[in-house]
């Protein structure tokens, strides 16, 4: 995972140059990044990219993107060689020096960056590019072993000592060490629910580590939990909203990866994750207040049932999603507050944790 | 609305027309008391059982009858002048010029003369204008002048089915009446019928009660004696023959497309065989030169086609015909009905072949009407129309509008309700003089007459809106005219153009007519589409050329950074790549 990307970049550029000098049109082959081009590996527990690739040949019509892709590769090479980093936004601004080849919107530069990443089948951090967003928050029985960025001296971070705050997952997590006696990791969708559990010391009561994802988990967040769970051999339970977005976008991406990042799912997934709630059955068992499913929810659910290799593989999931669609409702994590603000701590979570075998895969 | 009695009309016909007129007039007079009595009768009946609890003064039918009087046509129109296009002072000016010009062009064409028109509008005060329209037509015989200009519904065109500008015979006398009403000035007409004959000048007013001309003054014009009036002298001997109409009316003058200026410009476009000189109130002189040196094919007169006749008209025709039996009536009064077909129709209607048409009862007329509708008949003759023609449409458009692209089409005749008609369309696109992103400009003609008002009510506009312009590379919002630097011109010619009202501003939306208009528009649209796509292709090629120039250096820079190559090698890579791409582009 830490192997340098520079030789790969040079090799690709060399083949482009050679094609040009042979009066041929050079081309680059990118893996197709979509759900249609992944297969679900049950044993390994993640989406693996299949062989399909798209070829971008340098023609009159593609000359602009081709030039931009090559310049992005050149920028990456410079970053890696000078041990520097650039955020996606910074890379976008660097392109403003490229005259006619500059990007007009950041989405354009992001796409080219993703293409380069897929081209070399590496993580964008290896290319010297870092994401803008925060990784996620951690609180509970965990000591993270990091280094001082200036002195290189070891630092022990005790995640029980952040009071009402939390430890922030850094962008690069590869070199972190862990010490913990926690029984499980509870991964939470919303910052609001995370705060409630921190405030009332749930991690102390249940002897666990709490992680807040804040929506779809970042790669750093997924990698952090993956390494923690692998190294310490502790189970991972996921607690999200009971709706198609929580199930198919957040949970599925967390556990097996996504179509868009198919080339790196192997590292950025948490195959040992189990789905604690909110399950469609919970809505009935706990008499949760609901909202009707929106049109996009139904579409997302049907899409998952039809095209998502993960849900196609797990019959239990297919059944659960069909159940949700037939009820035509969704329930948020916070809906538990209808039975009392701390019902989630006093009743729901303890009851659920007693029977992890009942969790959805 | 021309009511000119032409010299060229054969003698017997000339005599016959006024005779017909006289015969029909008393009929109108008789009709009035009859209907009045009908209306009064129920009222009187209803009055009887009413209890006399309040002292209401009740009138008997006799009392009412004393109040009922004939309404003369002229009186009616004095009160309803909006029906004829005199609703606002600005429109009144346009309508006046339009009526005079329509008459002038019709007269010239019927006499086989290439029209030369002089139109002079001068301001007398801000709300009063003088309109002079002079033509080189055949002139009018002395005896007819007062009736043509001083009597409503007197004309040569109402009883015929032939493509002509005027139809009812109201126009110019209505304009005269409008002038008389608003300024008190009579209409003045000068006419020469030939170089050897003396001309005549009349000042005429209308007796609005009796619908009769009143001659205010009358004098003989001596062609050899110079006119005392300077302005008249200028046009006096321009032609050996012709007519000059002069009116003073209450009006306002505005510039622009919906004004007299636009009307005259468009008239010149639709009449490329005419030369028009127009002096606007601000003294500006517009010369529209003749484009075509030949007169358009003369339109022919046809009898009505049975499928276009309504029951009421059929009844009237039955009672007025001179035919002795049903078969000769059908065969003689209609087109496309041979004697055997007429016999079949009579049989199908259950009528005796020998029955006298004048004696047909209402029920019999109705079954005859049904039989006619059911009968299979040949379509009416369609070679009776006179199109402008593709070539002249193009030339007319080119003369008035500077654009990058022109297209025109002239369709074959078709039929609606038994009336033959044909549609022509032309368009001008692009170029600096047309506004870019605005809605297109529509120019509509009916029998070569520009239609300036009620654009959105017109079948022509509706058809343009219903055409899918995106197919031709033109932008268009749903339910709106397309938006492009474009002028679309549509001409519909027919023996009887169906207008939505008497002021003749919009063509009625018959499905057959809409279909033909759309086909014509699609035809020019396709030609435009080809042109636009060619333009797009060229722009595309240009864009690609500049693409190569712009982006290849960046490929060089990137390869230099990654591979640490020197400038010389970089230049070689760039040059080779450019060459490869340009060669492949040319092969595309």
UniProtKB/TrEMBL annotation, chain A:
EC number: 5.6.2.2
Molecular function terms from GO: ATP binding; DNA binding; DNA topoisomerase type II (double strand cut, ATP-hydrolyzing) activity; metal ion binding
Domain Topoisomerase 6 subunit A/Spo11 TOPRIM intervals: 184-353
Top-level EC class: isomerase
Cofactor(s), names only, from the UniProt record: Mg(2+)
Stretches assigned to the Type II DNA topoisomerase VI subunit A all-beta domain: 132-182
Catalytic activity: ATP-dependent breakage, passage and rejoining of double-stranded DNA
Ranges of residues in domain Spo11/DNA topoisomerase VI subunit A N-terminal: 64-128
Example of a GO cellular component annotation carried by this entry: chromosome
Pfam family membership, one: Topo_VI_alpha
GO biological process assignments: DNA topological change
Entry keyword set: ATP-binding, DNA-binding, Isomerase, Magnesium, Metal-binding, Nucleotide-binding, Topoisomerase
PANTHER family, per the entry: MEIOTIC RECOMBINATION PROTEIN SPO11
Family statement drawn from the similarity comment of this UniProt entry: Belongs to the TOP6A family.
Name recorded for this polypeptide: DNA topoisomerase (ATP-hydrolyzing)
Record organism: Eiseniibacteriota bacterium
